[in-house]
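Notes from the 1:1 (GR / supervisor)

We went over the backlog. Supervisor wanted to see one worked example end to end before approving the batch request, so GR pasted a single chain during the call. The sequence is below; no edits were made to it. Supervisor asked that the structure be written out right there so they could see what the output format looks like.
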Amino acid sequence: MTMTEEMMEAIEKDLVFLATANNEGIPNVVPIGFARPIDSQSILIADNYMNKTHKNIEENPHVSLVTKDAKMNPYQFKGTAEIFESGKFFDEVVEWAQNVMTKLNPKAAIVVKITEIYSVQPGPEAGKKIE
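Structure output shown during the call:
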């Protein structure tokens, strides 16, 4: 699944909400300030303070996210998440976070590979899969 330029810009410029669930299906959702597309199919997230979310992704890599301003970017992104505690993605989030706030010390980088995109636009198209 491929994100449009508008979708990618909205993710990078807006707060996103990341939803996870543990292996028992108990949901968790958190606001994320450090999320940006790597390319049209992947989103990089800095794990600065995640506890339940990090554990949930270890147990169940299926995630979903929306931007704070769903009116301007009415899409839900679903995908699989992978945690990186070293390497290229980890180094990238450390540099990124510390350039914004020197006190930040990310624990990990999370890469979400987008598998599906759905409309969250109110009306008859709500919930429709974007092809």
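Supervisor's comment: The radius of gyration is 14 Å.
Batch request approved.
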